[in-house]
Amino acid sequence: MTVEITAFRWVPEPARGYVKDLRVRWALEEAGLPYRVALVGPGETAASTHRARQPFGQIPLYRDDGVDLFESGAIILHIAAKSEALAPRDPAGWARTTAWVFAALNSVEPAGYAVMDLGPAYSGNESKTEQAGRVRAEQRLASRLDGLAVWLNDRTWLENGRFSAGDLMMCSVLRELLDEGLLADHPVLAAYTRRGLDRPGFQRALAAQLADFSPHP
To answer: What CATH code is carried by the domain that includes residue 67?
Structure first.
């Protein structure tokens, strides 16, 4: 069967272009694999048929002849296993690609969300506990970004001068930080992220996601 992914037919305007099926679409574009999209309304993810495939009621879902998957990281690694465009075929190269996918999801994304979830910067009304929590979150994110920037330095991509699923996931995560102004102190990471987003595969995936959204719920 043709690859099928499940995505939302409607989300609020600020979320458009950021729903995580975009990562899967991008991977499929890079791999050159055709796919179809099954669109669901936000309320439909609570249905038993959806929960039977995704116990947390989230998007995206993925299905092909061999597997029925959820979680964007797992889906992207599955796609990468099908295509050398997303990962080297040698065991060492594959292992490193896997490590970078996990690094994006485990080391960078949670640190970024912790800061973004705090909302606007200190307004004068936060308690000392809240102020301390903000400082810890910002320091943790800065540490993660500093380490990544040192690693990249003058590299074009994370490993061996070639784009991989690790870069796809890392750029997807950093994109939100870039848009929130959180990469202002890390020009190396901002430039790296823009390189990823300039790829034709990302542009096609973004256009496809935006085209699928209905104007009304």
So the answer is: 3.40.30.10
Instruction: Supply the Cα-derived Rg of the chain in whole angstroms.
Output: 18
Instruction: Please list the residues that pair with 35 across neighbouring strands.
Output: 3
DSSP E strands in the chain: the ranges are: 3-8, 35-40, 61-63, 68-70
Q: What angle do CA 182, 185, 190 make, to 5 degrees?
A: 70
Q: pLDDT per residue over 126-183, tens digit each?
A: 767 777 778 888 899 999 999 999 999 999 999 988 999 999 999 999 999 999 999 9
Instruction: Note whether residue 125 is domain-resident.
Output: yes
pTM value is 0.93
Q: Do residues 41 and 56 both lie within one domain?
A: yes
A 10 A CB-CB count for 30 gives 25
Counting every residue written for the chain, the total comes to 217
- Segment 74-115, tens digit of pLDDT: 999 999 999 999 999 999 999 999 999 999 999 999 999 998
